[in-house]
Amino acid sequence: MQNELVKRLAWSGLVAGLGVVASLAAHRTAGLIWRRVFGEEPPE
Asked: Which of 11, 12, 21, 26 is spaced 20 to 30 Å from 3 by Cα?
């Protein structure tokens, strides 16, 4: 039973970590596109 719990926690951590990385990458990419299109800093 504990092995299954560890697997579920590891899976949840992996999904959460990848979600954070994807979110940061999307934010950074959107900022780059905004700067090139509008020539200014993106709104906060």
From this structure: 21
